[in-house]
Amino acid sequence: MLGNTSRNIHLTAMSSPLRAQCRNLMGTATRQLSIRADSQQIKSVAILGGGITGLSAAWYLSKLAPAVPVTLYEKSSRLGGWLNSKRVEYNGGSVLFEQGPRTLRPWSIAGLVTLDMIRQLKLEDELAIIPKTSPAARNRFIYYPDRLNELPNSAVSAMLSPRLPVMKGVLGGILKEPFRRRRSPDLQDESVGSFISRRFGPSLAQNMVSAVLHGIYAGDIDRLSVKSLFPTMWRNEAAHGSLILGMLRTKNKAEIVDDVTLQAELTPDNAELMKKLENASVYSFKGGIETLSRALVTELKKNPNITIETSADLGSVEYSPDDANLPFSLGGGKHSHVVSTLYASVTNSLLSPTHRIPALAQIEAVTVLVVNLYFATSNLLPVEGFGYLLPKSIPSSSNPHKALGVIFDSCATPQPSETGTKVTIMLGGHYWQGRTSFPSDAEGVRMARDVLRQHLHIDEEPLAANVALNRDCIPQYNVGHDARMKDVKQALLETFGGRLCVAGASYRGVGMNDCIRSARDVVKGLVEHGGRYTGLEGGGDEIRWVGNEKGR
């Protein structure tokens, strides 16, 4: 799958010159993460949001600034946010449903941060590893225009793939890519759809990449920003004129300095866990993905310096710059710093009218309806695999309910105690932008069953069902996102002096790994910069590259 966190991490395979550059870039970053903030200006921190980003931020503060009091505020009565593993009873047993994320990829830079957290929380024995050899790892499908298309996973299948409807025109577009003109130097950003169509042709963009972006962002390929989602591809076109020629000509591929530094910093301590996962495609936890957030909550509650307030009514975040020590007032308390992990628009709405940041309100998010179904019959699915995605180009007649994809949970994340067939259907996303009313639970089940009936010819009555309407769950990095991030960063510095930080899915990655890394980066930045940090440093045009001199 494409994604801005898809870079593999194999430190031992790094070239000698790049390893040398990495060591030089490390500087003091190799020191252990046990920085004390006693001498800093951080007196008391408020964390807004008790999802995975907020819990991670509180946990990292307990590690990097153990003397600083931390109060975490969560609006709802539960912690964990979109990590929600729910056990549903039915006549004769129970089934574990995931209402949000369900698996993690280990082989990315952000994925290494999550592994480091898992190791420190001593959760290694709780891992459920899906190997690269499993059908879920090898078999991926796109439904187009009216059938399942199995994507190539080998050289032989790639040679046969032009026969698939979804691959029509794709290979020809790839062969022509080196001969296409590079973009105008005046172009500051572009939609993913426009970029892929321009470089490889519309077939790849609309029939394949749009399906992938449905699976990651539930978003519209013709609105999402290529500069923000795929910064390496955006850079490589400018540097080489061709993405393919750039890959062929480059001896040492360009990498982001912060990634290389972080990789070198965390790899030694996690070498054993990385070895355990060396043959993993993805992984989860035996008790569901919420195992991680529950472990964080358990550890945080043991810490007398950390207060967790659920069902919190914050009202508004008041800022008084004249109070040099505790300028923020919220939730009945006063704090020197605030870390907001909430959706950007919600963060903005909590600020007083004179302190609001328009660019925060401009970041959109989509709503996804997640329907889990469990059937008594085992092996009910016509194929084995992770599941299938639906592209934007699919005819409306083949996708009347605006499904984004279907996950074959029984194959993707099998539970030994579950002998039937479990699937998850995701609907809505960008198709429902601007919508004010949504399907009821009963309507959601009916729509999901219609999808299975039309696409997979499954008409069996489910033993158990669960419906979750995840409102504004996935922020959208639409064209111009990088410019908006610059505006937000500048406003945070000018208005709050870097005492209000932002972290989480609204900014630099919507995945669970991205959110955990974001929390770590913000806390580490706050502590190392004397309490003056925004969480948006080092992105966009500020990205530093290493390994390939040309085109820097």
Task: List unreliable stretches of 5+ residues.
Answer: 1-16, 25-39
Q: What is the CATH topology classification name of the domain at 85-108 and 118-137 and 364-476?
A: Polyamine Oxidase, Chain A, domain 2
CATH architecture of the domain at 85-108 and 118-137 and 364-476: Alpha-Beta Complex
Structural class, judged by helices and strands?
A: alpha/beta
Helix content: 25-40%
Task: Describe this entry's structure for a reader.
- The structure is a single chain.
- The protein has 552 residues and is α/β, with parallel strands linked by helices.
- The chain has a domain of 157 residues: Alpha-Beta Complex (Polyamine Oxidase, Chain A, domain 2), CATH 3.90.660.20.
- 34% of the residues lie in helices and 18% in strands.
- The protein has 20 helices and 21 strands.
- The strands form six sheets. The chain has a seven-stranded mixed sheet. It has a five-stranded parallel sheet with strand order 10-2-1-14-20. It has a three-stranded antiparallel sheet with strand order 11-12-13, with no helix packed on it.
- Strand 3 and strand 4 form a beta hairpin.
- It is globular.
- The two termini are 26 Å apart.
